[in-house]
Amino acid sequence: MPAASPTPRENDPQELNRFKQSIDLVDYATRRHGYDVKKAGPRGHWHQLEKDGEMLIVSRKGDHQVYLNPGDDRDSGSIIDFVKTRENQTLGQVRQTLRQYLGEPEQGMQAATSPPLPPSTAYAPRPSEPAEVETEAERRARLVAAVIGTHAALTDRSYLHHRHLSDETIDSPAFQGRVFTSQQGNFRNTAFPLYNEHGIATVEQRNDDYKHLLQLPKTGVWVSHPTEGKDTPVQRLVVSESPVDAMSYHQLHHRGAEGQPNTLYVATSGTVTERQVELIQKLIDKQEPKEVVLANDNDAAGRRFNINYLNELQAPRRAREVADGQVAYDEAPRPVEWHATAAGKYHTALRVEFHHATRAEGTEHLTQLTAQVQQLRPSADEAVALEVQRATRQQTVVRLVVPNADSHALEELARTLHAQRETQRGQLERLPHEPGRQPENFIRTEYAISKDFNRDLELLSQGLNREQAAQQARADELAKEQQRQERARQQQEQRQQAQQREAGREQEASSPEAQRREAEQQRQVATMAVAAAGGDPALQRAVQLTVTEPTPADEATPSQAQQMRELLRKAGAQVELRAEADPTSGQLRSELDVRYQPHATPGGLRQLSQTLDALDKSPLVTLREDAAEQAERRQLAALPPGQSVTKTAIVRIDEPEPRAGAPGRAEAVAEQLREGGLNTGSLRSATDPTTHQRHSEIEVSYRLDQPNLARASAALDDVARQPGVQLHEHSGDRAERHRLAPSGINTNGLAERTAGPER
What is the pTM of this model? Predict the structure, then answer.
């Protein structure tokens, strides 16, 4: 018999629930959309993600994760909402996307090449019983074995061929045993293991439109064998962002070329971690190459990597034995250091730090740096912004910012600083235990014609010469810039529309009816403000700010922390300030304990929330705040004037069937709730013909700022105590209601008797 046709799933609600439960929202956001995890709560209960200045809070809600954008109250929900919003898809398209993400067949068709991610339980904390605890090494072995098996081999070259890599390159001695096929059921990908001193640390899987790194710490690098075979002396080490770029570089510049140095390739699989820099340096120490080539992408991010490598990597270090057979390395002195980072979406920042013995030396360094920056400015489309962040007797810190298009200027400056530092190191060559300067041009950069070496390989494989490839690369960049400008235009239109909506709301708020509602709200706020001022800690939220700054020149000059305290007080918060000066470093460390009442802050929560967010962006400030309270603060601050938080609950009544035409207890309960000031939905009832019992349900709602909240809360509690009545209300909502409208009721006992399952 022919196989039955698959059942359509487009309207299956259970599938949506399964997506929510099976897909790690944090992993999806970081892998598919480039978000970075900035903060995380204990045991991963919440995460703060950031990308291009946008922040998301991801937390758990029952059996799945949800997210909240504090800057846009319309941008929140589950993985379904996340994909709909960011990938501009219909619900049907979202289903197809997430099926493919999980590696599931699409309506009976063969699944896409992306394998299913490990279930969310694979990343959850293990049970605490000693017999069931899984060590980090065991977890790594389990995840790696699930990807490449116990007998790894390269059995499928289709992805590598699609990236224009030839069999001659793939079969090179350099890449033998360094590229594998990941086989999970019917799904195949190309796997690149990342190694450290202990073996495989994690595995990157690649395929067309698919990239995934195992959820293990990125404490390893992908490393080839020497091009002349294992255990041959290495003359050159090439560092790139991806293994495919390393193999492309080899095919373009090494394959078939005579006289090429014996080369070792290293790749970081994206953003470089401190541990990866340490491993690359250890490879340099062990292999002792004559040169290091930085072959990262030809864009602002690649230049930032190269700038930082220039500061961090050095010629092979001399090793010496210390106690217990351990080995230590002689580190070269660093009188000047630098580090490049992204400054928003379209700019690059360079932090330069000078170490010196006197203030006069620091002033001299700053003068010299300023002159060097002036020389760079003609080559940049815009002026290089320079800011002195710290100037003490022993340290001078400067921050420079340029548009990404001019990041080459910062790279040129870093090379100048590197040359100056090497000159200073050269003066130490005659000392017996001091490492000296690097060989000249020991570290050099080499950029692709286009964005990266794999794109170069693609263009040249099409028969283009280098000049034509360069023209195509410029066309690619132009198209990319046009797309960026179009996105910026759309964002500007969205901002203008939002401003128009805000203006309309303000106009509506000035109407007599809106003013009456605002007056009622202010009376309620004043009542709750008295409770907050009375010292009730349950009504307050806490934020702590740590401020590190240079000590003011004299006592008459207020510190930055003191100015911040006044700003927060004016915004309606209670602030306590503690400060301590460090006479050695000349730094002043202050701690501000900030407390506020989310529903009764004088001047409105919006001003206080904006002040806290602005201070959090200051390089002087470290802000600590509970993630749930931060999300609540931003959500309340984003509410339009006159709008409050609405809570809902379900009241269920079981009673004998009333006489025909006569009202029952359910009607009486509904009337009691309405008289108590609650909004009630329609009464829904059903009678069991066997037992003649009537089961009724009423949905009720209330606002946390309504003037009669105490009466409404008392009505809910009174109803819940009646026989045959059950109040189904989230425990958090119930606690918030009792805090804001205390009624003298024993809420603990009430919860035990009446609280149904949380919704």
Answer: 0.53
